[in-house]
Design goal:
Layout lengths: L2 H14 L19 E2 L5 E2 L6 E5 L4 H11 L3 E6 L14 E2 L2 E2 H5 L4 E5 L5 H13 L2 E4 L5 H4 L4 H7 L4 E4 L18 H8 L1
Parallel strand pairs: 3-4, 3-8, 4-7, 8-9
Antiparallel strand pairs: 1-2, 5-6
């Protein structure tokens, strides 16, 4: 990956919010109320300043990261180039060209398209992980490891990263050999 591609992505993200601006303190005051007034009249939310890299799709993962965004976290959703998240096309109903379903679980997020099967895309996600506090993913167990984006690989590059993996499958069960790993309810319906 050229350094200029990463610089363009990071530059875009920094212009659209406080994503890459360093904090003025090296600590977090955890004893503040859930919201507090800023001098300018705005609100401080519990997760203000937390950066989340969202590698999720469909329901459980996007809903979880949406809640983090609602609480003030900056959420960067990584989607595949072209069609993006599968749920963008799930409808009707649609709002413009986006499905209402997709919009209902992806508010308060920024979105970028990255080909995770390309080494350049993997490198870009690794660089983003280095500047994020949390990564949330819901791929099939072991899939991100195959791409070089598993916990072991990213914890070496970004040791302070909190890596959250959500799966509808028991990692020791064979559902993942047959199921698209959306949610357990969907898999249960398919197999019964």
């Amino acid at each position: 990956m050229s350094g200029s591609a990463l610089i363009r992505v990071l530059s875009y993200l920094s212009r659209t919010s406080q994503f890459l601006q360093s904090s003025k303190t090296n600590y977090v005051n955890i004893r503040r109320p859930l919201t507090a007034k800023l001098q300018g009249g705005g609100q401080i939310r519990p997760l203000d300043g937390v950066k989340v890299l969202d590698l999720t799709r469909v329901l459980a993962g996007p809903f979880a990261t949406m809640i983090l965004g609602d609480l003030g976290a900056e959420v960067i959703k990584v989607e595949r180039p072209g069609s993006g998240d599968d749920t963008r096309a799930w409808g009707p109903p649609f709002v413009g060209e986006e499905s209402a379903y997709f919009l209902s679980v992806n508010r308060n997020k920024k979105s970028i398209a990255v080909n995770l099967k390309d080494p350049e895309g993997t490198k870009l996600v690794t660089e983003l992980a280095k500047v994020c506090d949390v990564l949330v993913e819901n791929y099939l167990p072991g899939k991100l490891t195959e791409m070089g984006l598993g916990y072991e690989e990213l914890s070496e590059e970004a040791p302070r990263l909190i890596y959250c993996s959500i799966t509808g499958d028991d990692i020791h069960h064979n559902y993942h050999n047959f199921c698209c790993n959306y949610d357990k309810a969907a898999c249960f319906h398919i197999f019964n």
